[in-house]
Amino acid sequence: MLIKTDFCLQPFNTFHIKVFARSLSIIGFPADLEELYEEGALNEKSILILGEGSNILFTKHYEGLILLNQIRRMEVKTEDEDWVYLKVNSGENWPALVDYTVDQGWGGLENLSLIPGTVGAAPVQNIGAYGAELKDVLESVEVFNMQTGKTEVFSKAECGFGYRDSIFKTKYKGRYFILSVLLKLSKNPNLNLEYAPLKKKFENRDPGLISVKEVSDAVKEIRLSKLPDPAKLGNAGSFFKNPVVSFAKIEELAAEYPETPFYKVDEENYKVAAGWLIEKAGWKGKRIGDAGVHEKQALVLVNYGSVTGEEIFKLSQKIQSSVNSKFGVELECEVTVF
Fold this sequence. Notes:
- The chain is α+β, with helices and mostly antiparallel strands and 338 residues long.
- Helices cover 25% and strands 28% of the residues.
């Protein structure tokens, strides 16, 4: 198995940060992982699995081993009159997968259109957007255990999915290489139009006559109106999570700012829109050197030229401190920082 050294990662992270990996191996098949395991290469203490680098910020050169995921293929495992069970390998491009399922008329992924990255990153983050999350359609995850060299399968229940979270991100971080996911998609879609802009767009339409493609196109339109294209302006999408706070905190915020946008999670917890907090704290459109906050979406930090990862990270810390000082709310990074 060929391991490349001093490998430039600039094309493999959407912030376009110029850093180098001490060593990197391209994984095209599960057998490549088995070979690395047999050679003892997976005993390396610092191993990073990298797809398209759409949710990562490199602040320095990576001194460990990077496994570049390029395992690609998808196939229908089984189907009936109502459902399609689609197995998708982890190196597949997520937006391309969503477009494929939408073109087939299968429902379940349309609200997740245009989320950048690979399929393998989806269960790690439990990706979500516009009222939908991966866990809504996921059946199981197939993984390679880098400690034992064995292939295992986790059911949805075993993945411990939470808000942008899973056991692959926390408890078992660094132990498993995700090989594929099994998705359960509907041939008779039950569309999710609860997100306010989608509800408004289709408010005068009979839900039974709306296609998954129309929903997907609407989501794309919304995303493109707010979020910069990483190919043109380096970014990793939403840099921060929407913070979860108590009802008492919501009451406190709403007393001073009646327009505070929040969403109920359960009887005790609510999400506050992080982008609104950042904008209200005065950061929207601000720029420090080549590091900046996007002019249309305050959740997105961007690279305006030749920024370093450290400069982006320092900007994120300033924003966190500012929001906490103004609102008493702590922002947590959604992007993984190295």
